[in-house]
């Protein structure tokens, strides 16, 4: 009797440990991201006109897990000076990206604009005067479930210019976001620090295939964000 009870306990414990080890959360902790091209994806999204916008910032899957959730990312982006769009109104259609994770093309999870210091109304100002802007995509499909967040960052022109990207606006938008991220930032009681590294060879250089014909320097910045 004692022997069989002991076996039952061992079996339960093995099950209890085996389940979390096999879960996606565990594999997520092991890799920063997987290059989309490895799974037939692209670092250019689909702007709907045969051209694409660059996924020029990656939030590493090795970041603090809370940063990689929808709410956690919003709080982090707010700490950098972004917020939700003006009264939830989208100006312009969604864009889709294929992160090579087995999900194929998926529309952006979220779209955020610079908030000029006012989370409620500032993005309306951005919509009028232009400013920094991002679309976020999550690499979470079955063949590359890293949890990394791929951002298409761009600095936009005022609405009078139909919200086109300013000259050099992809590289500038990326660099502005990264400059803020590598300072210590905080929002709603959470403080963040990030380390940045530049990766070449993921994006093309130049303007071939790039929306609005704006040339890229080809750099992607990988941010590893930790909550303090
Ligand atoms: C980031 O920093 C720059 C330079 O200080 C600032 O102009 C910008 O508003 C900040 N926010 C974003 C979202 O880039
Ligand atoms: C993206 O959203 C648009 C508008 O809702 C929809 O028509 C389109 O099919 C979506 N694309 C993908 C890849 O889900």
Give descriptors for this structure:
Secreted protein, alpha+beta, two-stranded antiparallel ribbon, single chain, 10 strands, globular, binds 2-acetamido-2-deoxy-beta-D-glucopyranose, disordered N terminus, 8-stranded mixed sheet, signal, 228 residues
Q: Roughly how many Å apart are the termini?
A: 51 Å
Bound molecules: 2-acetamido-2-deoxy-beta-D-glucopyranose
What integer value in Å does the Rg equal? Answer: 20 Å
Note the overall shape.
globular
Count of extended strands:
10
Beta-strand content estimate:
15-25%
How many discrete domains?
1
SSE arrangement, N to C: HHEHEEEEHEEHEEE
Mean pLDDT: 84
- SS-derived structural category: alpha+beta
Order of strands, widest sheet: 2-5-6-7-1-10-9-8
- In DSSP terms (H or I, runs of 4 or more residues), the helix count works out at 5
* Share of residues in helices: 25-40%
- Biggest β-sheet: count, sense, barrel? 8 strands, mixed
**Which residues sit in consecutive blocks of at least 5 with pLDDT less than 50?**
1-26
SSE inventory with pairings:
Elements: H1 2-22, H2 24-28, E1 57-59, H3 70-80, E2 82-84, E3 96-98, E4 105-107, E5 110-114, H4 122-129, E6 131-138, E7 149-156, H5 169-181, E8 185-187, E9 190-199, E10 220-227
